[in-house]
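I'll show one example:
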Amino acid sequence: MNTRTNKLNSEFKRLIVEILTKKVKDPRITEMFTILDVDTDKELATAKVYVSVYSTDTEKATQTYLAIKENEPFVRREISRTMHIRKVPEFNFILDTSMAYGQKISEMLYEIGKKDDNN
């Protein structure tokens, strides 16, 4: 990946967070989330946006993710107004569950450790 694409990815990430937290007024976005990464293809046609939602309530987490995903056209329009580039890619929001998976593994290892301590 070239330097220009890296810079664009970084700027897209910053702007997406800003737009979703300050401009999108969707009542379904109730949970804390973060944009982990943006990966734009070299033609600037599409960009994968990796989203992680932090919540103990899976229903609220799902609703937050769906609201983020459904607000893609608004996010894209706002970025188009802000950035002076010829083409703003179509953003494909992807739910990243690696942090939740890592937390689950940590809990399992902790439980195994507790059992070993008791023996």
About this structure: DSSP finds four helices and three strands in the chain.
